[in-house]
């Protein structure tokens, strides 16, 4: 029903208070979903075997689709990488939550950093991509790096509150250090103890005065 106040028509009733409709996201068609899953499977295999700089055309061919189909699902290489690594990132985030109440906050932080290195060295080139993404939240890898920084920040804060880590250490610097260690490990496959040695050196620099 419409009324007039000071010459202006006003609408009363349900239409006046109805919230704006949010555009619906259409579900992926069955064939598109199959293509999407095949691309992820083949990309994961290719990244593991040949590194993250493997040919996108080759990934599309192995998935049985054209390169145009790949780009419709993943507009660039980093978007594809982010989708491939999402499962591993989810596992690392779950691990961080499990360590949130660990009795030794510094040991929990180091355990989580070690898990990141193990994850990053699974795919040649991933550590370098994560280092780049940490400075660009608009990157296709941001959906991996941003929640990782948040999870790591919580573990770092707890370790700092316990006096085990210096208060001037930032999670951004710590993640860059960790990715740098992963890159060094990637370049030295014949030295399986390198990650632990570098983490030990990092820990010595992180410790607070009381530890």
List keywords for this structure.
two-stranded antiparallel ribbon, 64% helix, mainly alpha, single chain, 211 residues, disordered N terminus, 10 helices
Rg: 24 Å
Termini separation: 73 Å
Main β-sheet description: 2 strands, antiparallel
Q: Name the helix and strand elements from N-terminus to C-terminus, one letter apiece.
A: EEHHHHHHHHHH
What count of helical segments does DSSP give?
Answer: 10
Query: Helix share of residues?
Result: 55-70%
Strand runs, count: 2
- Seen as an oligomer or otherwise, the chain set is single chain
Poorly predicted regions are: 1-25
Instruction: Report the average pLDDT across residues.
Output: 82
General shape: elongated
Q: What strand order characterises the main sheet? A: 1-2
Strand content is under 5%
Structural class: mainly alpha
Helix-strand layout with pairing:
Elements: E1 2-5, E2 8-11, H1 14-17, H2 30-50, H3 56-63, H4 67-73, H5 77-98, H6 105-120, H7 126-133, H8 142-161, H9 171-187, H10 194-206
Antiparallel strand pairs: 1-2
């Amino acid at each position: 029903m419409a009324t007039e106040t000071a010459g202006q028509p006003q609408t009363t009733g349900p239409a006046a208070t109805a919230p704006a409709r949010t555009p619906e996201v259409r579900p992926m068609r069955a064939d598109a979903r199959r293509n999407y899953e095949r691309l992820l499977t083949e990309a994961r295999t290719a990244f593991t075997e040949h590194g993250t700089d493997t040919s996108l055309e080759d990934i599309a061919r192995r998935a049985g689709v054209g390169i145009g189909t790949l780009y419709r699902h993943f507009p660039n290489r980093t978007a594809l990488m982010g989708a491939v690594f999402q499962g591993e990132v989810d596992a690392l985030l779950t691990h961080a939550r499990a360590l949130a109440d660990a009795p030794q906050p510094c040991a929990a932080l180091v355990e989580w950093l070690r898990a990141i290195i193990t994850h990053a060295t699974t795919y040649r080139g991933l550590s370098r991509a994560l280092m780049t993404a940490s400075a660009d939240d608009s990157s296709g890898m941001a959906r991996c790096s941003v929640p990782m920084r948040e999870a790591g920040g919580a573990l770092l804060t707890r370790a700092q509150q316990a006096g085990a880590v210096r208060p001037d250490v930032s999670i951004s610097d710590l993640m860059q250090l960790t990715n740098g260690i992963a890159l060094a490990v990637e370049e030295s496959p014949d030295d399986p103890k390198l990650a632990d040695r570098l983490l030990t050196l990092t820990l010595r620099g992180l410790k607070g005065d009381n530890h």
